[in-house]
Specification:
- The protein is α+β, with helices and mostly antiparallel strands.
- The strands form 2 sheets. It has a 3-stranded antiparallel sheet, with no helix packed on it. It has a 3-stranded antiparallel sheet with strand order 4-3-6, with no helix packed on it.
- A hairpin with a 5-residue loop joins strand 3 and strand 4.
- The longest helix has 30 residues.
- The radius of gyration is 26 Å and the shape is elongated.
Amino acid sequence: MAERYGARSPRTRWLSVAALALLVAALLAWLLWAAWVHATTSVSGEVISFHVAGQHRIDVTVQIARPGGTAAQCTIQAQAVDHSLVGETVVSVSADSGADAQIKASIKTDREATTATVSECH
C-alpha cells in the first residue's frame, strides 16, 4: 500500500499524536476544574427544625451559612415516609443580612411529609 499511496511521514504521525494528547489534556483539565467548582460551594444550608403541620404542609427552619454580603438561594425538599419527594420550595437570603441566617418556610405537600432536607444551596 505504501508503494501505491505513499507512506506517511514520521513528522505527520508525531504531530497527530501530539495534537490528540493536547486535546485529551485540555479535556481532562476542564473536567477537573468543573468537578472542583461544583464540589467547593461557599453556601451551605442545614435543617434546624421542622414541624409537620398537617397532611399537606410542613414548616421548616433552615440555617444558611454563606460569605457575608452575598445573596443565596437554597432548595428545601419535603419527603414522605418512603423517602419520595412530596414537596419543594426555594428560599432566598438577601445580600444585606449577615453571614449566617435562619429562614422559616412552609412547604405545601402532596401527602404527609415525615422529614425535610436541604438539597442544594448556591
